[in-house]
Task: inverse folding
């Protein structure tokens, strides 16, 4: 049976992890590769690296990082953040990433999804969709860009459907309402998207407890769940989370 | 020498990296002579069937691959291309395994591609020497090969059983990505290197 996936997300700036990672057992807490290896060893099913490097000049550090991650870990990983062109994607995939995610650039130029999926294959194109609650939208959710700062007037479900028809292989849905709150995933948003498209959906934003994961898999119909700080700060331990989910009848991959 | 066939299909780097973790150097090549003389051959694959076949044909690799006698590992698209025919782009393939490659049916309520970790069972053959029944492997695909006498591992996706691996003499083929399947995948690769 296909397992529900648990995906830690690492924010990376200039090749180093940021946002308060405090692993005592890492030689270098800022080393994204060491952290990636640790997660891979403890049973993470996949990893996402989000490049938050501010300057174009430092983008090269991400390529080098992708290369070392590919050398060291044996689970799939996605790279997102600032991807705007075919060349960006070619560079990241050639360095060894399995998938890339596009966000704002795809909203501004939806044909980017067609171009990327035709050239590199749907399976490696993930749409990162950031949404907020907006009762004026048909689905109740609006697409936002620029890290949530800019509303687009585009209904989140219609954007998800459009991205699917343009050829993306997976959608990473982040609730900007829930993100950072640790109050639980946006279950309704996740279900609205996942229940109405036929490609896998990764739920993101709001993870606080193990029960939140169970809820987003069962009620939210998510295929995978992504979180950052609950893993980075040891609030949730991945083997323990998987054991909990398994006891609750959710198919998960045990081991590593 | 381990030859990794270069034919324009993606993620060859992760295959080379996985070999590197096992202490083995893979040589990326499209040269028929090098491929023929290799001790082992790996045929990786992420991509689309018809363009992959066109690329193999342009490199003069079609007969080369069919005639190989050393241990051969085809991965994902590299497994599907060894079959007779693929519904992806209505493509005639290499025919080492006389099976069709079919698209997962739409409208059964399950998501396509079949993406993520799934269990493999009914294991047989050298590749699975160190793998237990129902261990998880990583899959990403929209097309599948039905179960037949060539099937050496079975996977089930919402009730549809398909070939997770095939074997015909020296040709070992996996639908899953051993290079991305963590510890279990590493054991498959290691068994191939010792086959």
Result:
């Amino acid at each position: 049976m296909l397992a529900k996936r648990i995906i830690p997300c690492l924010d990376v700036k200039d090749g180093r992890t940021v946002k308060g990672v405090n692993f005592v057992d890492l030689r270098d807490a800022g080393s994204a590769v060491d952290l990636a290896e640790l997660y891979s060893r403890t049973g993470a099913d996949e990893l996402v690296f989000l490049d938050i490097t501010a300057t174009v000049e430092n983008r090269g550090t991400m390529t080098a990082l992708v290369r070392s991650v590919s050398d060291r870990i044996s689970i799939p990983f996605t790279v997102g953040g600032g991807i705007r062109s075919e060349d960006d994607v070619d560079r990241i995939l050639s360095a060894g990433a399995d998938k890339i995610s596009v966000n704002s650039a795809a909203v501004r130029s939806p044909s980017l999804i067609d171009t990327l999926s035709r050239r590199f294959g749907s399976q490696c194109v993930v749409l990162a969709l950031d949404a907020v609650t907006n009762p004026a939208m048909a689905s109740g959710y609006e697409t936002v860009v620029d890290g949530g700062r800019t509303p687009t007037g585009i209904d989140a479900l219609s954007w998800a459907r459009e991205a699917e028809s343009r050829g993306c292989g997976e959608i990473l849905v982040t609730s900007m309402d829930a993100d950072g709150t640790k109050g639980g995933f946006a279950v309704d948003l996740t279900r609205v998207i996942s229940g109405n498209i036929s490609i896998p959906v990764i739920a993101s934003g709001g993870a606080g407890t193990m029960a939140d994961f169970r809820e987003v898999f069962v009620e939210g119909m998510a295929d995978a769940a992504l979180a950052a700080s609950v893993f980075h700060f040891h609030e949730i331990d991945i083997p323990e989370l998987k054991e909990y989910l398994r006891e609750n009848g959710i198919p998960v991959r045990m081991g590593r | 020498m381990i030859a990794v066939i270069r034919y324009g299909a993606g993620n060859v780097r992760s295959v080379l990296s996985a070999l590197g973790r096992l202490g083995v150097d893979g040589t990326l090549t499209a040269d028929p002579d090098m491929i023929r003389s290799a001790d082992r051959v790996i045929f990786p694959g992420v991509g689309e069937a018809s363009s992959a076949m066109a690329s193999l044909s342009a490199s003069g690799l079609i007969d080369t691959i069919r005639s190989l006698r050393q241990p051969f590992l085809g991965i994902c698209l590299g497994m599907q291309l060894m079959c007779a025919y693929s519904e992806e782009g209505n493509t005639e393939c290499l025919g080492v395994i006389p099976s069709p490659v079919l698209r997962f049916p739409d409208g059964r309520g399950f998501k396509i591609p079949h993406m993520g970790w799934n269990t493999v069972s009914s294991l047989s053959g050298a590749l699975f020497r160190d793998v237990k029944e129902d261990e998880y492997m990583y899959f990403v695909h929209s097309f599948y090969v039905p179960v037949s006498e060539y099937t050496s591992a079975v996977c089930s996706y919402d009730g549809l059983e398909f070939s997770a691996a095939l074997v015909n003499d020296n040709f070992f083929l996996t639908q899953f990505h051993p290079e991305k399947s963590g510890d279990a995948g590493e054991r498959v690769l290691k068994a191939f290197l010792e086959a």
